[in-house]
Structures are given as C-alpha cells and as structure tokens.
Amino acid sequence: MMHAPALLLFNKPFQVLTQFTSSDGKSTLKDWIDAPGMRPAGRLDHDSEGLVLLTDSGRLQAYLAEPRWKVPKTYLAQVEGELNEAALRQLRAGVRLKDGLTLPALAEQVPEPAWLWPRDPPIRHRKAIATSWLRLTISEGRNRQVRRMSAAVGYPTLRLIRWSVGQWSLDGLSPGRWRHVPEIQVMRFMDERYEAACGTARGAPRFRYRSGAVRAGPRSTRR
C-alpha cells in the first residue's frame, strides 16, 4: 500500500524553464516552487506560459506526459493575421509537419480572454497586421507542436498559453502561483480516468484504492 500521488498545478510565467536547474542562469521551477520530490509531468517551452503539472509519482508522470496515452491539452494562441475557416478546418483534420501528420485537433477562433494577464515583455505588434486568438486542443506532445501547426496553416504564433491538461486548468491561478490538487481528486482521476483509458493496455501501470491509500496493481499482460 502507498499514499495517493501528490499533484501540483503551476501557472508558469514567460521565460521560465520547466526544470529545477539551469546552467546558464535562466529562471527555473526552483525559483517559484518549494515542493521537494515533485517532478514536472511533461514540459512547456521557455517562451510559452501556462499550466504545468508536477507530481511525485513516476507512474502518474508517465501517464500525463507520454503521448501514447493521449491526454488532451488545450492552448490559447495569439496568432499573426485574421484567422479564417479554411485554416481551422486544416487544424481539425490534421496538419502535415516535418515529423508527420498531426492527429485531428479541436480548433476554434475565440475572443481575447478577459482574464488574460499582460505579458512581460509584451509581444511585438506590427501595426499593419491584425492578430487573432486560437483555442487548440491536441492529444500529442511533439516538440513545439502548436507553434508549428499554426505556422503550417499560415498563422505564426506570437503568444502561447497552455490553459488545461486533462481535467485540470489554470482557473484561479495567477502567473507564478501554484496549488496542490486535493488527494481525493487525484484518487478519483486515477480510478475513473486512468484505468478507463489505459488500465488494460499492455505495459500500463494500474492502481487500486483502499481507505485513502493507493495500491499498485499488476501490469496487464493482455495484447
């Protein structure tokens, strides 16, 4: 038996590395988070902002971060130009990148979010060119995928914020702030979502719960 994994939500500011050390003096998670034993579940680029999940569980970290489990991630991107329906259709169908065709995505144009904080430093505007806001939900984890997808359909990304990962979002979190997810929510997630999604997949770690604790079950041998 072991305790349920800890899970932490962090709103990563612009130009912070999603790691705890840096060899070149850049700001890291260590400058913002005092939570020994926690590790990021996936990365968010240095020049992107928004939600980063951290956990003390290698199994939960792998499930949240590894592309094969297809945990949805939603981004808000400020792009250069006025979005049109043709570009949105391309994003929804899949975009051809150098490393292959992306999976279909959820894509829609949205107004600039009213809750959005100012970026420091601000993006560089070109007065003659309008900008648009795109909400994009993907279930892969390719390097700089959202930026490459928007550029591939003719709309370079100027600012990128990750709003949510799975069921967790930035709601109520200002830049640089973090909070723990209550243990009961983590247990419910792993019970209802984790096992439903991949508990019978070959090599997927499995969990069972008893009286506020979590027990690692055997790996499935089904093919």
UniProtKB/TrEMBL annotation:
GO MF terms here are: catalytic activity, acting on RNA; pseudouridine synthase activity; RNA binding
Any idea which UniProt keywords this protein has?
Isomerase
Q: Which GO terms describe its biological process?
A: pseudouridine synthesis; rRNA processing
Q: Pfam families, from UniProt? A: PseudoU_synth_2
The record's similarity note reads: Belongs to the pseudouridine synthase RsuA family.
Q: Read off the NCBIfam families from this record.
A: pseudouridine synthase (TIGR00093)
Name of the protein in question: Pseudouridine synthase
Upper lineage:
Bacteria, Pseudomonadati, Pseudomonadota, Gammaproteobacteria, Steroidobacterales
